[in-house]
Amino acid sequence: MPVQLVGNTRVHYTVHGEGPGLVLVHGTGFGSDGTFGHLVDQFTGRTVILPDYSGCGETEDDGGRLTIETLAEQVAGVIEGSGKAPVDLLGFSLGSVVSAAVAATRPDLVRRLILTAGWARPDDEYLKNLMTVWRSMAGDPEAFGRFGTLTAFSRGFLNMIGSEEVENIVRGNQPTDGALRHIDLNLRADIRDLLPEIQAQTLVIGCALDHTVPVEHSREIHAALQGSTYAELDSGHVVVYEKPAEFVALVQEFIDKP
What we know:
Helix content is 42%, strand content 19%. By secondary structure, it is of the alpha/beta class.
């Protein structure tokens, strides 16, 4: 597994396929493989790069408090180390916040930008209280996992996959040190001042049934990015699992256009 040294952090990442670079940036708690591993082969004609920023996978750091700037530097370091710049950069959830920061501060590294189920400001009372309640459940792993699962997926999807698979998701959604560091960052993340600096062509994808980051946040990002394209899928927060085919088709069409 390749490693990129960024400051005091050893950032691990994986590389798949051949072609122009497509970097996929994960969200809270789950690393890149857990978020995007099932989609890698569906992005055709691309070198798909999956970084794990601090708090996930085998990436090693000092365990300190995270900032968007720190995680953006880690993703930028991986892009530079891959030799594929400029890349198409796709972020999901917290990864959207990080990816937007990369595009704003390192426009030389980003050709096109896809922001999925993200947000730009920390002052939304719903989002603030949801993250606070989720963090407060850290002492009860089962409650933490159930709350995270209920907010991450739509009711229809949970009923479709059934009880056994829901229980598997709950068990996999645990209050790790990394997840708690990410939730702490979610409560502080604010990129409103960075959005006007983004130069890359941008696709914003919102999730109409999102109970983690309400879809209005994606609409706000789209409105703040002049010339951006917007698409909305009938999905809960984790659209990469609820609507994988539709999601990949949207992204592939956007990055393949002349």
